[in-house]
Amino acid sequence: MTLCLAATDQNITQAARLLAAGELVAFGTETVYGLGADATNARAVAAIFEAKGRPQFNPLICHYASAEAAFADVEANDAARKLAAEFWPGPLTLVLPRRADCRVALLAGAGLETLAVRVPAHPLAASLLREVDLPVAAPSANRSGQISPTTAAHVLAGLQGRIAAVLDCGPCRVGVESTVLDLSTGTPVLLRPGGAALEALEAVIGPVQRGVPIEQTAAGRALRSPGMLVSHYAPALPVRLRAEILAADEALLAFGPPLPDAKLVFQLSASKNLAEAAARLFEGLHWLDAQAPGLGLRRIAAMSVPESGLGLAINDRLDRAAAPRDL
Ligand code: TXA
Ligand code: MG
Q1: What is the mean pLDDT of each run of 10 residues along the chain (327 residues)?
Q2: Which of 134, 135, 238, 245 sits between 20 and 30 A of 48, alpha carbons compared?
Q3: Could you tell me which CATH number the domain at 3-210 has?
Q4: What global pTM score does this model have?
Q5: Which amino acids bring their CB within 6 angstroms of ligand 1?
Q6: Domain 239-322 carries which CATH code?
């Protein structure tokens, strides 16, 4: 059962507690309703993809109560500070490099070295974010492939029974998603037009290059093919899929009981739980990459993960990691 919480102080506190406990809570922003989870909790982030039925791990926007809180997780530059002063709280999302001590789970950014951050203007969203005091990852609160919800009733129509609660924040004022601006390179690039007008951004930081959403670009393909883009984390070691026996030079990415004779094992989920495995996937690739060379291991062998539920997204990501490298 999904709770529909009226916007009272008590219910905001309850919503914050649910988020802090790793539950999914949808909440209204000025743009559209977001499906929120504690961004520092990879398991909670995995549950977002599961509830949405997303076949891939798209990078998510992290929501904060203040610019100061956001800039604790990403490296702000001049343009970012100027835009934050002018447009936050508001319908503008900035893509910036993750800080070395960024608290956000790698899965929330789909393994990218950049992170999309925003400070929403809706007063109830702001209260919730202040109270929970954690970065909250939130894509639009719809099932994958459906349109973004602008009322609590829309959210329930798609996600009833799949999430812990929706905080009813009334109809969304802006009604379209936030403008997404990439400030992670020297040139500002508009990745998605949205609630903050391009002309207004240009009045503050000068010319902005028109881009296309990451899903439709070389960067987006690189997301699905991690060897292709320098800014994307790619396992340095080659990956072999659906391993049933291990070679002597292979480290093991295990799913369930590990294959025998492994010298180095990262367990995605001992109990074969797909949400747990998704939550640990990027961490596992990083860890094996770092540890394997010291043991003389030169490849990663990944055990089979079923092609159902989050398994589709896990296999998609592993397939890409295993694909021959073009670069
Ligand atoms: O208004 C909004 O932005 C809403 C509310 C809930 O805040 N959220 C939203 O999230 O629309 P979502 O997941 O539906 O869209 C996020 C967009 C996607 O186009 C995604 O590719 C892009 O932001 N994005 C996220 N992280 C990125 C990154 N590191 N680099 C490039 N694009 C990124
Ligand atoms: Mg969306």
Answers
A1: 96 98 97 97 96 87 98 98 98 97 95 95 98 97 87 94 97 89 94 88 94 63 43 68 94 97 96 89 85 95 90 79 61
A2: 238
A3: 3.90.870.10
A4: 0.84
A5: 29, 31-32, 34, 58-61, 93, 95, 109, 112, 114-116, 138-140, 177-178, 180, 182, 191-192, 213-215
A6: 3.40.50.11030
